[in-house]
Amino acid sequence: MGGARSTPRLAGAERAREKEQLTDMTASIRQRWRPAVTGLLAVTLAAGAHGTAHAADPLVLDHGHIDAFNVTAEDGELVLDLAEDVTGSHVRHAPEDVLLHVKEDAWIDGIPEQYPGSPAGYVLPLTQDQNLIWPGWNTGGVAGSGYTDVEIEITEVNGPGPVYLYTLSGFGTVTSLLEDGGHQLPGTLREETPAHTHAQWTFAEPGQYTLTARATATNPDTGQSLTSDAAAYAFSVGDQEEPPPGPTSLAIEGLADHYHTGDAVELTAVPNVETDLDHYHWYTRDSARAEWEAAEGGEGDAYTGTAEIDGQQIKAELLDADHAVVAESQPVTVHIDDHGGEEPGATTLTVEGVADHYHPGDTVELTARQDPETDLDHYHWFTRASADAEWALAGDAGTGASYAFEAADEADGLQVLARLYDHDHAVVAESEPVTIRVTTHDEPGADPGAPSEEPSEAPAGDTSGGAGGGSAGGGDEAPLCLPTEEEREVPAAPRDALVLDHGHIDTFNVTAEGGDLLLDLREDVTGSHVRHAPEDVILHVKPEAFADDIPADYPGSPSGYLLPLTQDPDLIWPGWDTGGVAGSGYTDVSIDISAVEGPGAVHLYSTNTFGGVVSLLDDGGHDLPGTVREESPAHTHAQWTFTEPGQYTLTVRATATDPGSGASITSDAETYTFAVGDAPSGLGAQGGTTTETVTVGRTADGDDCALPGDQLAGGNLASTGTAPPPLLLGIGAALVATGGAAVALRRRRLTARA
To answer: Quick check: helix, strand or coil at residue 674?
Structure first.
């Protein structure tokens, strides 16, 4: 990670070293991704699938919202990674752990000549296509760090063709995003304030591309900078021919039925399918119970050894270019038969002396017996804690035919075997394992416990009567006066709304929590992903949004207050996010804008890949009211036009449906307020009413009565407020503008939370 620096540029020697490291990294990534690229052998994640941030297997993403260049400031360092909403919500990964697949569906063979990449290429559009990846970048993670002016430098592009990156103006005009004013990578992106941005990408040719990137964040007040490590991003573009299947197993050929002592053993490893791989490892072990050891006689797919140990086993492994095992043989066993010329020392071994069981402290005395007896007397004893554990040399046993040790509780289940060795320290015989049993007999003891004492009776409760009790005698009695809680509506204390006039805002933020559907507002202006009750926020569309040249074929023509599809850092950038329903089952979301009140019309729409108007409403229109539908979790921005200045209120409710069961959940209705044009005096001041709960006296018939003073509640027991939309009365709150401070909030029901 990079620390604070006075300059984001690397010295020549340091840059040369880093370039060499990146070259190695790129080569490694290409090698690593080759199986996934050619046929996408790694599993492509569908919506709702789950993954890990550092998966051991390749993560291939071929659709969904992806912040490819995700920049955060953490503990004084700048981090460049990748965040995605496909496997979850804002799941972060090391870039080299992810392959971004551009499907064949992205191919367009009629790109207009005024657009980069014309006449044909693989285009990832500016607006999200649910079937394709939607890569962008997010620098919101530097908010609050001071290092808010971020450059993302794409220093190198390796691939079969050029890569173009650009955006479109509100009316489809090609606009550069690169510092040099061009449209082709490499290049540098700059976000002077924290921002979340998407763009239009074009890859000219199919194949594998690697982009090398580095981020630098500068504190505009001090001039100090932080620089991230360089990161490599892999893109697989288009459908590529699937390679033939690789080998998955090996057969060993050339094994004889038996050998004479000293014969040559010549074997060959044969893959189950033809392959160009030729890196083999051979292993041997003296018996089926011994440990495998690397064999000296293996070279390539051939092994040559000498028959010396009856029962010796041999196996082979085939490795790929990354030295990973791709195929392995079953072990084969060498049998030696000298036809009556029995080897000196041939014998069987048995361990004797084991008792049915032992008590802790007993001595376990074992003896290895040969049958027939030989003149060999070199033994090793081995133990293991259980039948599925590994054998270990009993270091205290010596090399004789006897082994003694003290029984202990932990020795219960211990297994022991002996091996007999010849003068060359080769194993001649091995015993079957014996199992040690250690038991502890319970001794008579005291009564486990005396009977528990009888619980003492609880003190008698107070049986005095309630308020208003009459005398025991007869005659007329006053009605019983009972304390009763009652709700009353009273004027609310004045409070301030949060006024947002710039920045990324998920105006309609839909989440499923605890079986309920919530509709609120989330913004990245006062922090990262800060949530609010919609009625606590005013969205200010500044006068700078006014456009007097809206083309005739665009909604709102000829003029209006325009919030463009792509972010203008000086204006609010309202959109919606339904990613909060992922994993709930209720993934098909409709956002119903049921009412619009204001001085003019409100238009909502998007544009296609090359600037044409596209409806986002279910009815195919562009004017609100209307319903926006996201059939799967999505994060969407749009182009808004308000035809007149003034205050607008939108009434909105969300419904989420489970596509499998058809069941639905619906949010409460919420009110959103837009203030369009010059900020009127009082923007942000709110009044309204609140409900307070008090205690009063009521008879059984519901009539008023006077409670004794000690039963009257001292003021409100609880209160909940209900407020109308913010009123445009007088400058009562400071705008959260560039360089400004956030308004202190007194929220009715939803505390802002990250």
So the answer is: strand
